[in-house]
Backbone:
């Protein structure tokens, strides 16, 4: 990686200020998924292994505009303490005298979690004064919050302008795998892009087109493509404003010699409701009055065959409305195919990550990204401000 990491700096006897992404889902004050906490552990234990280092953590949680108990990091401090097997002190604030007092009282090997940075509106405004206050609590800045690296906030970007910043291991891994698909991926390289809309995925499709061997397009967005090819799509999801975009994209792919695969059969319903009965349509064309909510078995076989032959697979976006049990099979079968592929497999983006977790296949994938918006922006070929701000090697 072009950026320095925790391995490149001396952390001994330092106050190490680490931005983590502990924005975990909570229900009734309980953490329902601690993946984001466990994902940060390699960096945190590495810091704690450095003699005399003090670990100061900062994160956001939810979207509060002012302090509230609902978005307190208190449950995270408890879970982190269990995972690290040592005491984690929650500072009542992330800046000001209360935070300073807790940090000043730290001994080597101590861990402090600063309270939610978004309790201060200055965080999202990337206020330089607020960034300076945060920076004053550390001697070295580490950013391991990949999930928020696409935001230029005080704790993700502003601090790095004051304290020399390096990447943590999670950040390094995310950039290696998601960014790595742009640097010499082993071929055949198959990208599977699904999800609801062409409009939100067109930038990803465009940025991947010059790199891939095969592009598989599934989910709601595939009907805009099938329609522009002259197929009937019934009541399926379509973006009328993007028919031309889809057509131009298919022409570009043809010129570039990239194979595009679209659904050839479907599971359809009469209406977009969870209880709808799934009906198989053994044709590319969707009958009048029906909406396609999942890919059919022929499509699964076609996609699976390409996926298994790939040396690199990148997957973003579900193949159908996998939230409805009757329409989850296509996405599950594709998740299974990605898991069965012997090549390097990368899953990036919120819903496909939720799908591989839901189907218990995450451990069979080379890299499952922890970032939603951040992975999408990286795949669009954009620079992430939280990464740009770190020191070059
Ligand atoms: P995205 O956030 O763009 O990756 O889109 C994910 C959403 O697309 C999920 O909530 C899916 O339910 C939805 N989706 C996938 N396939 C379809 C489809 N055939 N019709 C309607 N929505 C779909």
Residues:
């Amino acid at each position: 990686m072009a950026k320095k990491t925790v391995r490149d700096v001396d952390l001994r006897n330092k106050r190490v200020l680490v931005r983590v992404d502990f924005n975990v889902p909570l229900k009734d004050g309980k953490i329902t998924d601690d993946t984001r906490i466990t994902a940060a552990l390699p960096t945190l234990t590495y810091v704690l292994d450095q003699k005399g280092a003090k670990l100061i953590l900062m994160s956001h949680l939810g979207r509060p505009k002012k302090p509230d108990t609902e978005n307190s990091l208190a449950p995270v401090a408890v879970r982190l303490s269990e995972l690290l097997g040592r005491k984690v002190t929650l500072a009542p604030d992330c800046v000001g005298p209360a935070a300073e007092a807790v940090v000043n009282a730290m001994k080597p090997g101590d861990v402090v979690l600063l309270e939610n940075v978004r309790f201060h509106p200055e965080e999202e405004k990337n206020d330089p004064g607020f960034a300076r206050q945060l920076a004053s609590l550390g001697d070295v800045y580490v950013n391991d919050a990949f999930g928020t690296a696409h935001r230029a906030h005080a704790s993700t970007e502003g601090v790095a302008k004051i304290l020399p910043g390096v990447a943590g291991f999670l950040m390094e891994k995310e950039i290696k795998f998601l960014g790595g698909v742009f640097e010499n991926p082993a071929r055949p390289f198959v990208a599977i892009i699904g999800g609801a809309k062409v409009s939100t995925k067109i930038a990803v499709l465009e940025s991947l087109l010059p790199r891939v061997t095969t592009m598989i397009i599934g989910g709601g967005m595939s009907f805009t493509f099938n329609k522009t090819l002259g197929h009937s799509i019934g009541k399926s999801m379509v973006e009328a404003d993007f028919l031309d975009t889809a057509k131009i994209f298919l022409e570009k792919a043809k010129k570039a010699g990239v194979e595009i695969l679209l659904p050839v059969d479907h599971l359809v319903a009469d209406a977009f409701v969870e209880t709808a009965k799934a009906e198989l349509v053994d044709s590319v064309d969707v009958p009048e009055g029906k909406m396609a909510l999942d890919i059919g078995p022929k499509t699964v076989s076609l996609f699976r065959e390409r996926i298994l032959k790939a040396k690199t697979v990148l997957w973003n976006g579900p193949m159908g409305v996998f939230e409805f049990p009757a329409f989850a099979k296509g996405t599950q079968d594709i998740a299974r195919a990605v898991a069965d592929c012997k090549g390097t497999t990368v899953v990036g983006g919120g819903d496909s990550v939720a799908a591989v977790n839901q189907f218990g296949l995450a451990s069979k994938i080379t890299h499952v990204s922890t970032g939603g918006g951040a992975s999408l922006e990286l795949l669009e070929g954009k620079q992430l401000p939280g990464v740009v701000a770190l020191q070059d090697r």
The pocket of adenosine monophosphate is lined by residues 195-197, 200, 219-220, 237, 292-293, 317-318, 320-321, 323, 351 (CB under 6 Å). The first strand starts at residue 15 and ends at 19. The mean pLDDT is 96.
